[in-house]
Amino acid sequence: MRALGLLTLLLVPLATLASAHASEQGFVLLLPTDIYIMAGVATVALTVVVLALLPAKAGHAVFRCLSVAPVPSLGLRHVTSLFSTLLLGSLVWRGFTGSGDPLSNPMPLFVWTVWWVGLVSLQGLVGNHWRWTNPWTGIATLLAKATGLRAPFRYPRKLGHWPGVVIFLGFAAFLLTDPAPADPARLAAFAGFYWYTALLGVVLFGPAWLVRGEALTLLMRAYGRMGLLGRARGRLAFGLWGWQVLARPAPALGLAVLMVVLLGTGSFDGLNETFWWLGLLGINPLEFPGRSVVVTQNLIGLVLSNLALLLAFALCLWLGERLAGMRRPLREVFCLYAPSILPIALGYHIAHYLTSFMVDGQYVIKIVNDPLGHGTALLGLEDFYVTTGFFNTPGTVKAIWLSQAGAVVIGHVVAILLAHALAMRSGVDTRRALLGQAPLAAFMVAYTFFGLWLLASPRGL
Fold it and tell me: How far apart are CA 105 and CA 264, in angstroms?
């Protein structure tokens, strides 16, 4: 394990010189990407080779957690949930009544920058904060205690997590294909309607709706399996990203599909901005006519990208079963290995949005510093100006590339380690586990190349 750790530390810095894309329209970050992409692919490939040479128990040893302290029972999660509800309500109000500029109105900045980039990444990197920040649990508990009523319907078990999968694809369609997803009033209407319908689901079906049918809670609970911090036998525990996956049973089929869809959606989120995609649609990226022209094409691309990824992932698992001489049902194997996709999806999420977070995060600070636009300085930043100067110097550009490509490569390395540990947990012998994992490992190596190429591609949007 020391050798594996040292090898990773030595190779990741080389791999992370790969490349990145900037969400800001005026910046195209170009470096000699061929060498760096191959270094990233080599890092992931060598991880597979090293795992094959290590003892069978090495995979589980990597993800062994350390117990830190007893978990305090503060009982504040409903209070913090109500605070999240009030915050969301105030943002919706500002979305309707405030400035129409997405960089001046707090609604789009807090939804797309603070929540979608910051809090989703924090959920996967650190731990399950959604337990306290979920904007539905507090109000649902308050309504139940005030009225004394129970949910009139029982959630149909046969639906599983599929409503959440469908709703998440609808959310992704709004994010990727709507002509103006950052328009404050438009986003406020969408967020307010979504919050109300999700609360209605909780009122009708009880808490089961949140854990099975509400897409954003499913998203957060899935990434919550990746966090460094978690609970083990009633105590706060710490371990490598993904250790909680091994501490839980395999997910149900619908949730497993959602885990793969997270990667497919994130990948298309980057692909639909590239010169390659616009060229495929017959559009000159230097004369882009606007998002409204490509709504249908992007919607079709989103669906096809996810279907292609699901098919490729299932095919690799099916082939692995045949190579290993095993005949487990494909559904069982799919659910077993689907969580190994989460580190890759999280790595792409962080890498894709890093540059926009660096810029838009400054606008968030500016609004927090002066929330009503009256010239106050709550943070003591009287002369605060948003800057993009870090895109203009070689040192900072290289640091950005290092961070973005590093997130992708580290995500793939963790995914391969996790897939190996899951294979050994299934009870098969080492030889069969390695044979069965080979097609999936090859898939992950190829996806590393694709991901780094995606970061290196110039953007036209």
Answer: 30
